[in-house]
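Sample pair:
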Amino acid sequence: MTHSKLALTWIAAVVTAALTACGEQKPAPKAEAPKAPPAPSALEIKIGHVAPLTGGIAHLGKDNENGARLAIEQANEAKLMIDGQAAKFVLIAEDDQADPKVGTTVAQKLVDSKVVGVVGHLNSGTSIPASPLYHQAGIPVISGSATNPKLTEQGFKTQFRVVARDDQQGPAIASFLAAEKKPKLVAVIDDATAYGEGIANEVEKTLKAAKIKVLPREKGTDKTTDWKAVLTKLKGRKPDAVFYGGMDATGGPLVKQGRELGIKAVFSFGDGACTDEMTKLAGPAAEGLLCSQAGIPPQAASKAFLAAYKKRFNVDPILYAPFTYDATNLLIEAMKKANSADPAKYLAGLATNEFAGATGKIAFDAKGDRKDAEITIFTMKGGKIEPIAVVKGGATLSYADFLKAMGG
């Protein structure tokens, strides 16, 4: 083959290959769907709750915990954003057994767990010794049930409460007792706890100021269920009324044994024994007793709260669940407004915010106490405590008039 033929053959092959290549069409690349923006990272926010979950007043501790838990669950359902992150609230519930030593132990445990706020403790006797630990760690604490004045008299800017103090509650129940029952001689007993002794002191002070004679103080403990020796002693003195500063687990046996011994006096109690549990413990002997709670009664809480609580726990609140619910929401609301779960950033707002809660409007004074707190007076009727009056700002309204004033 000549060189010219070879050249022509090579050119023809190249042209054919080129034409073949041009005839092959590659499929166009598929357009990719736009990627969704990454989900915001989760911000775990730990809130502690402390109350006795074992022992004689475990029912009250669980009631308080339920209130806090409901608020946590609702906040998570609301899918809140804090500091650009999806907030995931976690409730860390601890049992302090109503014991001051255990109370400080679980308080330190919560501090070590890096909680950013605490709801509790239930008892003044555990709240007071635990409060310095929270203060030193800079962790805000709101109690929904501790009533001893000392709790907020320590000057800790981290400490708050959403119920009335005993120097409000004690005079309220004592004044009502004096006005309605007109006793001339009153016996006062306490359980030797910070709460029981504190409210008994306030009751005694108020009665004496009203020129009512008060017998020398009698004592028990927060475990006493056999009161026969104390009551036998009192029977001989024939008091017209008996006031007990303590909880229902010990107050129930007190009134039952008093009636069994033939004591005719009016029995009266503070909030620790102002529950339907008194009927279970004392039976018919509880009928007619007087007692007080350091806030509005549970049944006067918002309808939305009551419905949600019943749906979630299949029971009605016993005592202070509406207040621990509000306390938890106060912490969450302060974090929302500060756009931070850092206590150093949201604490200032917590102290100054006004909040519309299940128990009404909440604002704190300079000490961390609730402004314009109510006290409700109850009597036991038909096996259940029934509200009969509300004291607010020194004025006493019938419960019916109070409901009207609330628009209920």
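The chain has two domains: 42-163+300-362, 167-293+375-406.
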